[in-house]
Amino acid sequence: MPRRNPRPSGATRQAPPRRNHARSCHAPGSLANTRVASLGPTCATVGWERKGRQVTWRWAWTAVAGLAALGGWALAAEPAAKKEEKPKETDWSDALKDIPLGPFRLDIGGSVRLRYEYQNDFNQQRYADDRRGFSRDGFLLQRTRLDFNLRFGNEARFYVELQDARVYGSDFRTDDFDWRLYSCPYTNPVDLRQAYLEWLHIGGGPFGVKIGRQAIFYADNRVWGPGEWGNVGRYTWDAIKLIADTPLAEVHGIFANRVRYDPDSFDEHDSSLDAYGVYAMVKQLPFRLDLFCLHKRTRPDQLYNAKSDRLDLDTHTVGFYVDGKLGKRWDYGGTLAHTFGDRKLVKATGKVASDDEVRAWGANARLGYTFDHPWQPRIGVEYSYGSGDARSSDGRYGTFDGAFGAIDQYYGRMNFLSWMNLHDYQLSLSCKPIKKAKLSLDYHIFRLDKAKDAWYWSSGRPARQDATGKAGSDLGQELDLILNYKYSKHWEFMAGYCHFFPGTFIKRTGPSPDADWFFLQTQYSF
Predict the structure, then answer these.
(1) What's the topology of domain 107-525?
(2) Distance of alpha carbon 39 from alpha carbon 257, whole angstroms
(3) pTM
């Protein structure tokens, strides 16, 4: 029987004793606290000074030339592959699939992903970091996953996924990330990412259940997604999912606690953040239509910032997602979400700083056209909106918070922003010069929705704010150039260069250098 594509999830358990290794964002071993020259430029080895935009564009042209070289290699390799039409051979990984174990069948899979990143004038935590040694960072990320899918018939299975995430050469340590607010995004040694039991169409009926530790994702991951780009990941849940699969719709009822990643111990669920919701995927329509109602609740003792302020949040987000095609060439999609509820912020002293009624909106719309050409060139436009808060003292909180969504490829690849107080105008161009390769170019214009509200970093924390609004709303622009190449069934390669141009808001509120990001990634899956 062919292997079913695993659906993400997992199981709650008591955490074993904490590991005794030192808190470090570096991988353990001889490489943990040393620079590795072969990994590329770092803060100690960059060896060049910024000379205005001349150096910036030199980086840009170097990156473009590198991507072009990769594309040329791919183009040259493709004809050779077509000429050698080898007979179909058995793949080594076939021996790991459909293994008989009594009445069960076992599939074993996994992946190893390596990504080198170089960040100039920004890092994981902030833009234009003026701390010594943090303005530039070059490092290698390694993420290994191993999964076991034990199937019983077509509808029942037990799925386990292990993950090992490490970093080499970064200037950051785990102590640089306040674990009370968020964990180190680079490192989480061998841990249980998913472990769940799934049983669909119980007794031949429409109902099913999925219970345990799981990654939850729907549609384009904008409203609810795991955040796969990050080395550790953004969201994993200890959850119960009740499923009703009928001819008209597939409906999921979700009850979940977020899992907190801990690089020094086994991960446990975070009891301070609860998620409930109903997500429905409507069938028998000429386009995709999803409807959702999500409930987010934090406990009154939920830590909000490093000042030990605490947030008591109780909100509902309702909306829909749509995706479809018009004829053969046009594609479209979008999301509309409305959040309402209550939000109370309490100072460490016990004083109530704000007690607001939440009324916020989030939206996304895209439209694209693919030309009738062997390269499949596509041009697209996209707009994303996250409402901001006009006045902080009127008893109404208007900043949209993005629900439980991923930000891996939205609002700019450099992850300078989140779906909060934002207007993002995007122009996209892409083509496939060969079947296995895709080259894409995205251009973003970013603006604040409300000038008196903050610019929010990808973590959802305020990056900068001008409470007077005099700094304006122009955040800046970003250019993203990405090459994807699927070499074979197992191997995938990806490379990219991105550049951020600061706007007047940033220039008027602090340091405002142009920022660059380069990455090169390879992944082997089986």
Answers:
(1) Porin (2.40.160)
(2) 38
(3) 0.82
